[in-house]
Amino acid sequence: MTKEIHTAGGPIRPEDLGRTLVHEHVFVLGEEYRNNYQTDWDEEQKVREAVRELSELKSLGIDTILDPTVLGLGRYVPRIQRIAEQIDLNIVVATGLYTFNDVPHQFHYQGPGLMFDRPELLTELFVKDITSGIADTGVRAAFLKCAIDEPGLTPGVERAMRAVAQASVATGAPITVHTHAATQTGLVAQAVLEKEGVDLSKVIVGHSGDSDDLDYLTRLAERGSLLGMDRFGLDPFLPFAKRVDVIVELVRRGFVENIVISHDASCFIDFCDPTAKREMLPNWNYRHISEDVIPALLERGLSEHDINTILVTNPRRYLAG
């Protein structure tokens, strides 16, 4: 087993991960947009709010979050470091690229067979983040992130996914993939990653919990991947009761070791107005799993051992091997 897990606050032992939510953002915040258009941004206030919300999460029995905020979602590690210094919760950060279509323009002309023909720059950057650290922060990424949504395997998505896969093979770091459950893009991701040599047991198929198609979910799990039941609170994608039903049935079918849970929540996200978010999605917050989901799963027959497997054993195996 890996001797240490890198977090925003420094390395920890795998056994110190504790109860872990595998897909939570702290900030989803386009810095270029913020600097040009969010003139009312108050950095100190936002940091204080994040410290308060994450401290509350710790008080509810969660010890660690994995933050898959990467290039394309506004990763800014110095802010995360400031927050990590003020809380007892572990924040594990990621590297990778989030896109549904094209790679950013910085990479359009650089790469194998392109105008500036060179080895894949994306892979090099991801490996550096994992092995040396992100920028000059000293914080090392512990996992990788890519995405494949409704547009499917576009050239940009495929390039990013293969670069993530190559970095995973080179470093041993696991992968989380944002997928679109309605079009079953998790199967496409598994195929691409496997062709690049990735061990599918080191892959979380993110947003699998948006689907109640048990045949689809079973196919993913049977290939060894973890199912990210990770959007509790985003009821428009799938209501709470159905999300619970799916987990209960997957456990009944013997897949408890393939389940991880989370909210995909954040302290701040610039995808929507904060007031509208609270009104339309009242359960989309860090508290929902501790306060509502775990009690519902226990009431439906899951054991404390099942909950421990989902929240402790599976994330630890994912990160530590």
UniProtKB/TrEMBL annotation:
<feature type="modified residue" description="N6-carboxylysine">
    <location>
        <position position="145"/>
    </location>
</feature>
<feature type="binding site">
    <location>
        <position position="264"/>
    </location>
    <ligand>
        <name>Zn(2+) 1</name>
    </ligand>
</feature>
<dbReference type="InterPro" id="IPR001559">
    <property type="entry name" value="Phosphotriesterase"/>
</dbReference>
<dbReference type="Pfam" id="PF02126">
    <property type="entry name" value="PTE"/>
</dbReference>
<dbReference type="InterPro" id="IPR032466">
    <property type="entry name" value="Metal_Hydrolase"/>
</dbReference>
<dbReference type="GO" id="GO:0008270">
    <property type="term" value="F:zinc ion binding"/>
</dbReference>
<dbReference type="GO" id="GO:0016788">
    <property type="term" value="F:hydrolase activity, acting on ester bonds"/>
</dbReference>
<dbReference type="InterPro" id="IPR017947">
    <property type="entry name" value="AryldialkylPase_Zn-BS"/>
</dbReference>
<feature type="binding site">
    <location>
        <position position="23"/>
    </location>
    <ligand>
        <name>Zn(2+) 1</name>
    </ligand>
</feature>
<comment type="similarity">
    <text>Belongs to the metallo-dependent hydrolases superfamily. Phosphotriesterase family.</text>
</comment>
<feature type="binding site" description="via carbamate group">
    <location>
        <position position="145"/>
    </location>
    <ligand>
        <name>Zn(2+) 2</name>
    </ligand>
</feature>
<feature type="binding site">
    <location>
        <position position="178"/>
    </location>
    <ligand>
        <name>Zn(2+) 2</name>
    </ligand>
</feature>
<keyword id="KW-0479">Metal-binding</keyword>
<feature type="binding site">
    <location>
        <position position="207"/>
    </location>
    <ligand>
        <name>Zn(2+) 2</name>
    </ligand>
</feature>
<feature type="binding site" description="via carbamate group">
    <location>
        <position position="145"/>
    </location>
    <ligand>
        <name>Zn(2+) 1</name>
    </ligand>
</feature>
<keyword id="KW-0378">Hydrolase</keyword>
<feature type="binding site">
    <location>
        <position position="25"/>
    </location>
    <ligand>
        <name>Zn(2+) 1</name>
    </ligand>
</feature>
<protein>
    <submittedName>
        <fullName>Phosphotriesterase</fullName>
    </submittedName>
</protein>
